[in-house]
Amino acid sequence: MPALAATDFVARITWLGCVDRPESDGVRASPVQEIEARYGGDTRGRHWGETRPSCVRVKDIHPRGTDIRNVRQFSILSAEEVAAISETMSGEELDPQWLGVSILIEGIPDFTHVPPSSRLQGEDGVTLVIDMENRPCQLPAREIEAARPGEGKTFLPAARGRRGVTAWVEREGRLRVGDTLRLFIPDQRVWAPLDGVLSAEAKSW
Q1: Taking the model in full, what pTM does it have?
Q2: How many C-beta atoms surround the C-beta of residue 39 within 10 A?
């Protein structure tokens, strides 16, 4: 029996980006028209690799710098949620380059909160597995501040619950601006004890 259920939600890729190597502290992405999605991600990008050093997001289960599976190969954001972030900040449009975006899509509501392990499948079969919500951090805030002095500090509160997701490649293929991605979600009910184990902070997102 299939464990992933097809939904009626089909997203369209509106923008693609690559955070170029060599590595730096910045997350500014360069716009590209297509990405060859390999098992290690985008071969040109800073987040390339089937493994990566663990970071603060998993500090409660791995010592920082531990070699772990790289489930953060791509940062995927919703154009609708980016527009909402922009409106909450100054009302001026945010450039995806400042946010370190790999893939900007439109067409899936409440995208940041789609179930973990959902899939986005492209027209040639390329398939990305959604790991989890990508919480806001200071790196995009610095890029925004450099471009619009005084606005960087407003990014984190505006982006709470709207920062998109991280994802990794399950099936290789090509992603192009204008392509569509169909959403598949795990065919299972919500875990019954979930509400009792979430922190108060998590419930507020």
Answers
A1: 0.93
A2: 13
